[in-house]
Write a structure and sequence with these properties.
Length: 271
């Protein structure tokens, strides 16, 4: 049997939303599907699955809200969401996304949400699985490949590409305002005045609820927005302007301090 025959697609599952695919119908260790590209940004309403879910970005970016956090899935990464976790997703224009649903206890995956780096092998195995009939037999070739996929996936490197967001309405208000206008440079003191509290009390609240200082938290928010827009294909100069940086160099410095590479180097390494 040739390699080309071996990987020939049998059944392609491509839908416009993962909620259109009922993964609970299948008892197999893992099943996968591809999300059809959309012409505009799309929002997937809050929902949950009995199975754990891995959201893999092939092109563009996906952001996902879970309780108390916003996670980003840049290209060549994936977000792991344990079974039973309520989440909603935002998919950028023309993004290509793949979903892997994993049966509980089928793999030693983290108990909490996390972003993981995807190796070329894991990527190809997930893509292969997305083209197979989901009700594959337990002793089939597909089942054997799934066993390899889950073993490789459990060793994936974890990345901290998320923004902690508290349920406190004051922090939610600040987050919503900054997402609507990332160039907003309102100081902590000014936020405190708007929210009728003291600067010290607000600083303590942000630190206790997010684990970050206000300055570090806002920088992480900027990083999330930057990664999303860069993944869409926007230029570094355009993103720096959107975030309100005085210069492109200042933005690059922030990005490099956070991820260890400049934006160009970071996305080149993903490719």
């Amino acid at each position: 049997m040739t390699i080309n025959t071996y990987i020939m697609p049998i059944f392609k599952k491509t839908v416009s939303s993962p909620v259109d695919f009922d993964s609970n119908r299948f008892a197999q260790a893992a099943v996968a599907l591809q999300l059809a590209p959309v012409s505009n940004d799309s929002e997937i309403e809050p929902h949950d699955h009995r199975k754990g879910q891995l959201i893999m970005s092939l092109h563009g970016a996906v952001s996902c809200k879970v309780p108390n956090a916003l996670w980003l899935v840049p290209p060549q990464h994936a977000l792991w969401i344990p079974g039973g976790t309520t989440h909603s997703c935002h998919v950028t224009q023309n993004a290509r996304t793949c979903f892997l649903f994993v049966e509980p206890d089928a793999s030693e995956m983290p108990r909490n949400c996390c972003t993981v780096a995807i190796t070329p092998l894991v990527r190809e195995l997930i893509l292969y699985l997305s083209e197979q009939e989901p009700s594959y037999a337990a002793e089939s070739k597909t089942a054997r490949l799934v066993a390899v996929l889950l073993e490789q996936l459990s060793d994936a490197a974890v990345k901290e590409l998320y923004l902690p967001i508290s349920d406190d309405p004051r922090i939610r208000y600040i987050a919503d305002t900054l997402f609507a206008d990332p160039s907003n440079r309102t100081t902590l003191r000014q936020w405190a005045e708007q929210l009728a509290t003291s600067e010290r009390s607000l600083a303590r609240l942000v630190k206790s609820d997010t684990g970050l200082s206000f300055g570090r938290w806002r920088q992480q928010l900027h990083l999330m927005i930057a990664l999303n827009k860069l993944a869409e294909g926007q230029s570094v100069q355009s993103v720096a302007g959107t975030l309100g940086y005085d210069s492109v160099n200042a933005f690059i410095t922030m990005f490099k301090k956070s991820l260890g590479k400049s934006p160009t180097q970071y996305f080149s390494s993903l490719r």
